[in-house]
Write a structure and sequence with these properties.
The complex is a heterodimer. By secondary structure, chain A is of the alpha+beta class. Chain A has 21 helices and 51 strands. In chain A, strands 8, 9, 12, 13, 14, 15 and 28 form a seven-stranded mixed sheet that branches. In chain A, β21 (373-379) and β22 form a beta hairpin. In chain A, α4 (178-189) runs parallel beside α5 and α9 (513-521) packs across α11 (547-558). Chain A is elongated and about 115 Å long. Chain A starts with 17 loop residues before the first strand and ends in a 14-residue tail after the last strand. Chain B has two helices and six strands. The N and C termini of chain B lie far apart (34 Å). In chain B, β1 (4-7) and β2 (11-14) form a beta hairpin. Chain B has a single domain (1-25, 49-89), classed as Folate-binding superfamily (Folate-binding fold, 2-Layer Sandwich). Chain B has helices spanning 35-43, 83-88; strands at 4-7, 11-14, 19-23, 51-57, 65-71, 77-82. Chain B is an alpha+beta fold. In chain B, the strands form two sheets. A four-stranded antiparallel sheet of chain B has the order 3-4-5-6. In chain B, strands 1-2 form a two-stranded antiparallel ribbon. The chains are: A alpha+beta, B alpha+beta. Chains A and B meet through α17 and α21 of A and α1 and α2 of B.
């Protein structure tokens, strides 16, 4: 018979079968099973191979701390590696495969690593592969990575969705066992808003495996009654399948709820996981205690597991761990396991009690071996027998399962997440939580291990939490306990003396006893050093089972107490959290939103090629029939704009409305140049500095009314300038009457440039646009289409042509652009993109952030005269006149062009004196911007060069160090086209 | 993972709504102050272990600049006020 399923008992539904596969083998289980319990029921004890030595491993626990039974579940994009079989709820159609084995779990070549184990001990990463260094990358590292491993992630996209949510409550209760339920009942009855979270599918914690009577009822029934009362209360929310993984500042707890991880095909309308941020005024940590493994030879053979897990599999899942079971314990809790097994008809061969004085209350059939210890195990891929040493000598016993209990470690991780250090309690032989504000530890997590103690401490914690909130609370428990275990304080047994073979401490990382003692011998006995030297506690289970034993072994080896060794630092996450849950809805286009200009539709139907600039999609150029390269399109757009007219979308520029009686004074203080006397109806170019004297941004600001200004910024710094202005207005000069509002998205703005721009624009603008009536730098609200729409018109020019910028409310943008294209058809208007815009601005020597690179002053770019000498204060003034910023040898703006018009050069090239060899010292500066000018028929560039303005006409070398190319060039005026600005003023 | 900051205008909001500028201690010197004072204001910052006053911008909320007094070790927030009040004081 292969089934280990008991005929009765447990919270599984024997009337229904669920089929699933493990390594391709078809198996069945029942609703209520975990993958681990279903595998055990099918007689499968071998569930994985260990990390380093590839030793056969079985399941060790029945919960979150499981280090061995890690499997990969699902297929395709739903593949989830390193899933603990103890936490995976069984569902029909589950596909699970084992990990870290080849070619199969039964026959694994990697197990030969065991033969290499003398070379794989503590610190082997540092020692074994030291020489020769060149072999690391090609040989050692790939070998180690292939041999030592966990499951493989899928390359396919996860088809499921995740979400994040906030929750607020008075009291968060973490854990729903005896303590948690008592705390929740107490706080909820007092009227507190309570959230109770439990990581398992069913709430109840250890009560679900408990056979004692509470209030005259079986413990699991008492738990159900308490849960039913809580569920019926409007102020209580019960979150099952929810792991509280971290405690963060401001009383925020992180939790992940596995909403649909227990179904084969998730409902697409719901998330598979939900990341909670729970803000709790008070919290009760009732996370229980973790049973400690015992360190003896062969303690990792499949069939050896925690005694508590043996009990849980029997009582909760109706599965026996073996047909003939032995128990190895340092405390009383194993006797309850033995009693339950015997009640279920399972033979208990022996209880090996490490204590000399064993409890006299044991009335079961099993033989008790006082003062005994298991020193070795026998068997291959399954346990076949154990060797016991006791006062009576050495004996061997044939068993197929061994439950071990080395005492209990309170689960205090969350209490230490905000910096508190655990405190060693010698009386309880355990690390306890430090005293922390806002979190009350109760039950097993506090070291109150019996059911009565746990319920009383839970009730007291619930009452304290409620009272801290000003509520009156009556401590409530689930009832009086019959048959409660007295758990005597165990004398710690950190390792069995005289064990044979490898005695594992950290199962998941294959750290055994000798690694730790060796680490002490070699000078790495400090707990933090030993952790890194041996990798103890560094696996995905973060040493939940191993850390305390490791500390005990280090303490013994160093001859000090565990308190002196201390613990490593507890950090979130308590258990692994999927990237999907952390990302939430922030995936794909939701991770980085797309910003489209109000003229996006217009650009699209005109055939624009878009370029991503930050979040924006900007129209780059507009290819026409027959054009085969971007340059062809851009050259045409430039020439057409300079001869006829062009329309360009400039909506992405930052736009800020500025109001207030002191708005003029405010602008005066944020720009280097004077704004106080800017008349209404006029625009002015402005330059903004940082406080360190370097240029921050530039743009135009127009005065639309006595106390109303409209500022534009560059696209890149739209948000930055807004934030900067708000800082100035609120934090530096709150006495100024000034109000700011971002209007970037409210206006569609288009540049209409070219000699024919006025006549085209006049067809839709009602006001007279003659030069006399609306001269260069005019700015005003205009009426459009015979009074049907209002817009803002600015006579400003980036291209150097007669040009306007027209802003209309965003929703009208596309229609107005269409109307302008129609109005300008006969005049040859064409759309142009940011590439042509860039070419035209370089032709005019206008700067962008290519030049404003954070290291240039106004003087560097030829703006020295723009800096007001009369203003008492503006941002940057205090530092601008530092010696270094006024040094005449600073690189300054100059134009550069090739000597041979057929030759080209690239942005970033260095400027060298004629005849010198390239070197850092020889570089006089570099090209900041370059383009092919279709007007001039050759490449042109702007450069920052030492003495640049004084060197117009000098022949230089333009040196491209990346390609080793030299181009003979000429320094020149940075304004290449229409240097006298005659076109602007027509 | 999370911090909650109580904006004096909007109430308790998660830290993701805010942008931190840094130490709010240095006061902008008067126009014409010696270069040394400007140098200290622009470049010199303490990095204390313990209580620190910082400028926080409620960039995803009311867009007011705030002064948050918090502990750099425990992240405990002691007070939050509007930056204009600090400038006036």
């Amino acid at each position: 018979m292969s089934s280990y399923r008991l005929s009765r008992g447990g919270a599984i539904d024997r009337s229904q079968s669920l089929s699933f596969t493990f390594d391709g083998r078809a198996l069945t289980g029942h609703p209520g099973d975990t993958l681990a319990s279903a595998l055990l029921a099918n007689g499968i004890g071998l569930m994985g191979r260990s990390f380093k030595y590839h030793r056969p491993r079985g399941v060790l626990t029945a919960g979150a701390a499981e280090p061995n039974a890690l499997v990969t579940i699902g297929r395709g994009g739903r593949t989830e590696p390193n899933t603990r079989a103890t936490m995976a709820e069984l569902y029909a159609g589950m596909e699970a495969v084992s990990q870290n084995r080849w070619p199969s779990l039964d026959w694994d070549i990697g197990s030969l690593n065991s033969l290499l184990s003398p070379f794989l001990g503590a610190g082997f990463y540092y020692k074994t592969f030291m020489w020769p260094g060149a072999l690391w990358e090609k040989l050692y590292e790939p070998f180690i990575r292939r041999a030592a491993g966990l499951g493989k992630a899928s390359y396919e996209a996860d088809p499921d969705s995740y979400e994040k949510a906030w929750a607020h409550c008075d009291v968060l209760v973490i854990g729903s066992g005896a303590a948690g339920l008592s705390a929740a009942l107490t706080a909820a009855r007092a009227g507190a808003e309570v959230i109770i979270a439990d990581e398992k599918a069913a709430a109840g914690g250890s009560l679900l495996s408990e056979t004692s009577l509470i209030g005259g009822k079986p413990a699991h029934e008492a738990a159900q009654n308490a849960l039913a009362e809580l569920a019926a209360m409007p102020n209580v929310r019960i979150l099952t399948r929810t792991t509280v993984f971290g405690w963060f500042d401001s009383q925020v707890f992180g939790a992940v709820e596995r909403v649909q991880k227990h179904v084969a095909l998730p409902d697409p309308n719901r998330p598979v996981e939900r990341l909670w941020r729970i803000v709790a005024k008070q919290a009760v940590l009732a996370s229980g205690a973790e049973e400690r493994p015992i360190v003896f030879g062969g303690n990792d053979r499949p069939g050896v597991m925690m005694a508590g897990a043996v009990r849980t599999y029997a009582n909760q899942y109706g599965v026996t761990a073996g047909r003939r079971v032995a128990l190895f314990t340092t405390n009383d809790s194993a006797y309850a396991v033995a009693a339950d097994l015997e009640k279920s008809g399972v033979e208990v061969a022996a209880i090996i009690d490490n204590r000399g004085a064993v409890p006299t209350s044991w009335t079961g059939k099993a033989r008790v071996i006082p003062g005994g210890a298991v020193t070795a195990t026998a068997g291959g891929k399954a346990l076949e027998g154990i060797t016991i040493a006791s006062g009576a000598g050495i004996e061997t016993l044939e068993v197929d399962a061994l439950g071990m209990s080395g005492g209990w470690s309170p689960v205090i991780h969350l209490a230490c997440h905000r910096g508190g250090k655990p405190v060693w309690d010698a009386a309880k032989s355990a690390f306890l939580a430090p005293a922390v504000k806002g979190l009350i530890v109760a039950g097993g997590a506090k070291g109150d291990l019996t059911l009565s103690e746990a319920m009383l401490s839970g009730a007291a914690a619930g009452a304290s939490a409620a009272e801290a909130l000003g509520l009156k609370a009556e401590p409530a428990t689930l009832g009086a306990v019959e048959g409660d275990l007295s758990i005597a304080t165990p004398t710690p047994l950190w390792s069995v003396k005289g064990f044979k073979g490898k005695a594992f401490v950290d199962y998941q990382n294959d750290v055994h006893h000798k690694d730790l003692t060796q680490s002490v011998r070699e000078g790495y006995g400090d707990v933090e050093l030993a952790k890194r030297y041996t990798t103890n506690g560094m696996a995905t289970d973060q040493g939940k089972l191993s850390n305390v034993n490791a500390i005990g072994i280090l303490a013994e080896a160093r001859g000090v107490t565990p308190a002196e060794v201390g613990t490593t630092t507890f950090r979130p996450f308590y258990t692994p959290v999927s990237f999907g849950a952390l990302a939430g809805t922030g995936r794909g286009k939701h991770f980085q939103p797309v910003r489209q200009s109000p003229l996006h539709g217009w650009a699209k139907k005109n055939g624009a090629v878009f370029v991503e600039t930050g979040l924006w999609y900007r129209s780059s150029w507009f290819p026409r029939n027959g054009e085969t390269s971007w340059r062809e399109s851009v050259d045409r757009e430039v020439l057409n704009t300079r001869v006829n007219a062009g329309l360009c979308d400039v909506s992405t520029l930052g736009k800020i409305e500025i109001y207030g009686a002191d708005a003029a004074e405010f602008l005066n203080r944020v720009y280097v140049n004077a704004f106080a006397k800017l008349p209404v109806g006029k625009a002015r170019y402005g330059l903004m500095l940082r406080e360190d004297g370097m240029i921050y941004d530039d743009g135009t600001t127009s005065r639309l009314g006595e106390n109303h200004y409209f500022m534009t910024t560059t696209t890149a710094l739209a948000a930055g300038v807004m934030t900067h202005l708000e800082f100035c207005a609120q934090a530096l000069w709150p006495e100024l009457d000034v109000r700011l509002a971002s209007a970037t998205d409210q206006w569609a703005q288009m540049a209409i440039a070219g000699p024919k721009s006025r006549q085209i624009l006049q067809r839709i603008v009602d006001e007279d646009l003659s030069d006399a009536n609306f001269p260069f730098l005019g700015a005003k609200t205009v009426s459009l289409f015979g009074g049907r729409l209002e817009g803002r018109l600015f006579r400003i020019s980036f291209s150097g042509e007669l040009a306007y910028e027209l802003a209309v409310p965003a929703g009208y943008g596309e229609a107005v652009a269409d109307a302008l294209m129609e109005a300008g058809k006969a005049d040859g208007i064409q759309p142009y993109g940011v590439e042509a815009l860039g070419v035209m601005r370089i032709e005019k020597g206008h700067i962008t952030h290519n030049e404003i690179n954070g290291r240039v002053t106004p003087g560097d770019l030829g703006f020295a005269k723009m800096v007001s000498s009369t203003k008492p204060d503006f941002i940057g003034k205090g530092m601008l006149f530092r010696e270094g910023l006024q040094d005449p040898k600073r690189p300054r703006l100059v134009g550069v062009k090739p000597l041979d018009p057929a030759a080209g050069f690239k942005t970033g090239s260095h400027i060298l004196k004629k005849g010198v060899q390239p070197s850092l010292e020889a570089s006089a500066g570099y090209v900041t911007s370059s383009a092919y000018s279709p007007v001039l028929g050759h490449t042109i560039g702007l450069a920052l060069v030492v003495d640049g303005p004084e060197r117009h006409g000098e022949e230089v070398q333009i040196y491209n160090a990346l390609r080793g190319e030299f181009t003979a060039g000429l320094l020149c005026d940075p304004v290449f086209v229409d240097p006298r600005n005659e076109k602007l003023h027509v | 993972m999370a911090s909650l900051i109580t904006c004096p205008h909007c109430g308790q909001r998660p830290k993701e709504e805010y942008t931190i500028k840094g130490d709010a201690g240095p006061k902008r010197p008067a126009p014409g102050a010696p270069e040394r004072e400007w140098f200290d204001y622009v470049y010199q910052r303490d990095n204390p272990r313990g209580t620190l006053q910082e400028f926080w911008h409620h960039s995803g909320g009311c867009r007011r600049w705030l002064v948050v007094t918090r502990d750099t070790v425990t992240h405990e927030v002691f007070s939050v006020s509007d930056a204009s009040e600090r400038a006036a004081s």
